[in-house]
Prior knowledge:
9 helices, 85% helix, MetI-like fold, mainly alpha
Amino acid sequence: xxxxxxxxxxxxxxxxxxxxxxxxxxxxxxxxxxxxxxxxxxxxxxxxxxxxxxxxxxxxxxxxxxxxxxxxxxxxxxxxxxxxxxxxxxxxxxxxxxxxxxxxxxxxxxxxxxxxxxxxxxxxxxxxxxxxxxxxxxxxxxxxxxxxxxxxxxxxxxxxxxxxxxxxxxxxxxxxxxxxxxxxxxxxxxxxxxxxxxxxxxxxxxxxxxxxxxxxxxxxxxxxxxxxxxxxxxxxxxxx
Length: 240
């Protein structure tokens, strides 16, 4: 017991090293929150492009070949984006964006937000697209019977239903993204994982700082998982 107290003193109290954990945790949360906002924005746009092409492409082809051609091009590039992002490791994407695309940037946090946001966007796109494709075709026909065009049907009828269906999955995507930010240290960002590693390097005592980092991630994930569970139960009650 006394040895654990001594280890705690060495790793967190001496030199106010606990502040590194607090700063790292704050940086991790900032990156995760803003990255998921970017991811949802990118994902929603890509999902609308892909689902529109799949559901309305043939009809658009008959009415307006110019708009259909534009939609086809957008859908083609969307599929390339999804293939590349989902087919390569997030840490490789992070390093490419930091060391190549934004090589002259001094704002490593912003670069990390963009990198993780771009990565998350590919997965969010498929979540939202799956939600749209799961909506019964009769809902689209109901929109047409009310005089809505495709865009109005999506906004007023489809999207509200899709949001309820995919919200728990989007929350789970945030949990996954939160854990993925642990690789931000590859570009020198002092996130939570990097903070634990810095303490380990200064004290030459790996057990306490790394276990502390693992426990903090575990607690955050448990809290978010519990909130997602409550959200799912609330949505099920509303459906009844």
